[in-house]
Amino acid sequence: MNWLTRDGPLPQTPLCDFNRLQFELRPCDVLLVEGRSHLSGVIQLITQSPWSHSALYLGRLFDIREPHLRVCIEAHFEGDPEEQLLLEAVLGKGTVVTPLSFYRNEHLRICRPEGLSADDAQKVLGYAIRKLGNDYDLRQVLDLARFFFPWAILPRRWRSSLFQHNAGDATRTVCSTLLAEAFTQVNFPILPFIDRGEDGSLRLFKRNPKLFAPRDFDYSPYFSIIKYPFLGMNDVGLYRRLPWDEDGDFLNEQPPPRTQAEPVPALRESEDQPRKDYLHRAIHFAGLGRKEL
């Protein structure tokens, strides 16, 4: 277990602006982590995705409405009440509360459930909090791996038990299964099976929560993907090349009329084409490139 959970070296180049990410997180957001352990490598290989771990953002202790749920969190976390907290299922620890700062140097991504009401968000958090202390189900990871092999070539005793009724221990879980079960409590879709009838009617079928992987929150059309790159487009100084009038400020609500059409300043040829198009569209919609009648 220690070999499976031992982290590799940190990435040399940070991909995520952690300071901005921790400011923008909201309770009930799903945080995806690109892990560096051997177990993370196995999950990444099985799911063909860089995301090997998922955690549920709880917020700070006072963000939890129900007093008994706050007491439950305090029983599993003895740190600062102002600390931003995650709930996650970790091999060797079970379902635990972890400070968000623990993942400061990791590559992270926010998956936000779109349209989830505040009351339902509290129900999702409540279901997950009640699972604190449960063990991690390593067998489910192995079952998921075996599920990807052709069924016929494996002996019966080696085949996946994911579809068996009440397979495994009900008090054991993995990170993505715990989150899928929590959102299922309020019928919030992640990746449902959709059946369209001949009359145009739709029916949605819930998937087995044990079949979910961290990548499914990334793929889901019902979760918004929010990225805060370490070096984003807002950090390269595009505003410095806008065609400002250098004659001075004006005090009226409307700019002074121009006597003749002023050409839009061209960007340097060294700039890449996407930034050119972005700036010219911004100038066009702002009306800076129109000729005065």
**Pattern of helices and strands:** HHEHEHEEEHEHEHEEHEH
Number of helices: 9
Low-confidence stretches: 159-168, 267-272, 288-293
Distance between the termini: 75 Å
Class by SSE composition: alpha+beta
Shape: globular
What spatial order of strands do you see in the largest sheet? 4-3-2-1-5-10
Helicity, as a percent range: 25-40%
Number of strands: 10
Largest sheet: 6 strands, antiparallel
Structure description:
Strand 3 (85-90) and strand 4 (94-99) form a beta hairpin. The N and C termini lie far apart (75 Å). Strands 4-3-2-1-5-10 form a 6-stranded antiparallel sheet. The longest helix has 13 residues, at 273-285. By secondary structure, the protein is α+β, with helices and mostly antiparallel strands. The chain contains 9 helices and 10 strands. It has helices at 2-5, 18-24, 38-47, 67-76, 118-129, 138-147, 175-184, 215-219, 273-285, and strands at residues 30-33, 53-59, 85-90, 94-99, 108-113, 135-136, 172-173, 193-196, 202-205, 223-226.
